[in-house]
Amino acid sequence: SRWMERMFNIVRMKDAIPIPAIELDKPRSVAVTNQIELKYANRVLIDVGLCVCLFEMIELGDSLMYQSDSAVHVRAEFTLVVFRPFIGEVLTGKIAKSSPDGLWLSVGFFTDIFVPPHFMQDGTEWDEELKLWVWKSEHGDAYLDPSHGDVLFRVTNSKFRQVKAPSRAPAAAEA
Description:
This protein has two domains: 8-83, 2-Layer Sandwich (Dna Ligase, domain 1); 89-155, CATH 2.40.50.140. 11% of the residues lie in helices and 46% in strands. It has two helices and eleven strands, in the order αβαββββββββββ. It has helices at residues 2-7, 28-40, and strands at 8-19, 44-45, 49-65, 72-83, 90-99, 102-106, 113-115, 124-127, 132-137, 140-144, 150-154. A hairpin with a 2-residue loop joins strand 9 and strand 10. The longest helix is centred in the N-terminal third of the chain and has 13 residues, at 28-40.
């Protein structure tokens, strides 16, 4: 559909993809595809957007081995599906959370969309008793709560920030 063409982009990439020794028994294209998905899916590429998935494998190049690494590094050219809505685009989402600071919206796979009060419709007020935003209009009040269903929102800014994954503490050994 037309909205999918705008919200998502196809981005061409080249990378040397490390294939761990445990994956070397698989067909080369399957092993590279698996490793691209592991490396890029659900990751933010600065100035590109949120990588959703591999779209197409274009070319598999030479395989390289390094003395200090047990992996085989395969040069690959491929395309990724990337979420990056354009400024001014109108999207459909659901209210994930509400606070006096604003609304957090979700489009399903992405839940980090924030709407501050100054971007809400005129007449929208925070109701401290109900703990949600209420849009007061001449046609009646509309309560903006998570069970309300879909909401439309316009993209006014797009910032994708790299977030460090939490480090994993080594498992404690039992004596």
